[in-house]
Amino acid sequence: MRKLLSIIAITASLYANASDSINNLSAAEAVRIALENSMEVAVAENAMQQAELNKRIARTAYLPNFSGAATGSWILPDGKIPDLGITMRMRGVYMAGINVMQPIFAGGKIIAANKMAGIGVTAAEEQRRQTQIAVAANAETSYWTYVAVLAKVEMMNSYRALIDTAYTQTQEAFNAGMATRNDLLRIEARRSQIEYQQGQVNAGADLCRMALCNTMGLPTHTQITVADTNVDSNIDIPENLEDFDLSRRPEFRLLKADIDAKKQEINMTRADFLPKAAFQAGWFAFGGIETQMPGMDAAGNYAMTSSKLNTNGWVMMLSVQVPLFHWGEGYKKVKHARLEAKNAELNFEHTTRQMDLQVRQAASNVRTGRALVQSAQSALKQAEAALESTSTSYTLGLASITDLLDAQSQWHSARADLIEAYTQLRINIIDYRAATATL
Prior knowledge:
By secondary structure, the chain is an alpha+beta fold. Helices cover 63% and strands 20% of the residues. The protein has eight helices and six strands, in the order αβααββααβαββαα. The two termini are 54 Å apart.
């Protein structure tokens, strides 16, 4: 038994360790995990199911309603009419019935309610899609931010390697009497500065990893290795940035659904002040009532006779309700509902202009980001050439340690700027795709 428990514990431990790490994570996989684990998406899915149920419930208003009722009672004492000598016994009185009612005309309220339920389903679908787009954009942004900070970690390691190489060269030159103690001290100071920066970048990488885990709905201690080692790999820049269709956005369709819903509210308000008709039919039965009264028996003798009342039957009824006068209440309510619909249309026009501006700003950000990447690429090439030339000159004793450290610092800044430019370009592209609902 102990051996079996040990095996189970070891297996569980291995499984737990495996589940605490994700290897070769891609941006698409990060989005998929985030969508699967998102509580916001789960809530939107539940809202979608509720809307579907509301639509099915609304359909039942077209169907007849069946109801049944039954009562029984035992009444004491017996009822008596002394002047007539009549006694009524109600011990075990019962009443039962089945009733069916079929609406014939409800002023269009049932039709409007069903249309509103259908609009509710459409709105729930778009709200779910809106939530999915937001979660996907957040996950992809978190992923590339983590890739970018890992690139900075690698860059700092390369920078540290340059400083270490420069220190070794300077140490050799110092031993040969070709460099001063001050040169070594300056390199050591720069190396200490880089070590501090490395600590900051490593801490930032860990924070970005935890943020990515949180976005994907995973424990923050989950270790992640990414499939993309460079933030500049496989950047897909959308073409024809000005060619977009706002009607694809969930917000656009939600506003349209709101207008449609407000129009149906007008019909529902009007229906409250229109005639209504319904057909009703039912079967009933009652009995258990016994009466005793004086009378003649079969032999012609005077005696008390008793009888029981038990009966059943059918009843059918057509009812029509016609509103006559409500001091203009119906007209005022319908006018109020029409104003609500007009407000929905005005809100649609205003928000559509805002969405158009948002997309155009996102497109402008993509163009700007692309231009900044090109500038950063050019600056890095120049910094790399300058560093190579200065390193050669320093080795030959033609450049000072100050020149070398400045060249290395310029290379570091240019490389950091390029990483930032690529990262911002990716975020701008994600924002554009989210704004155009193409994410």
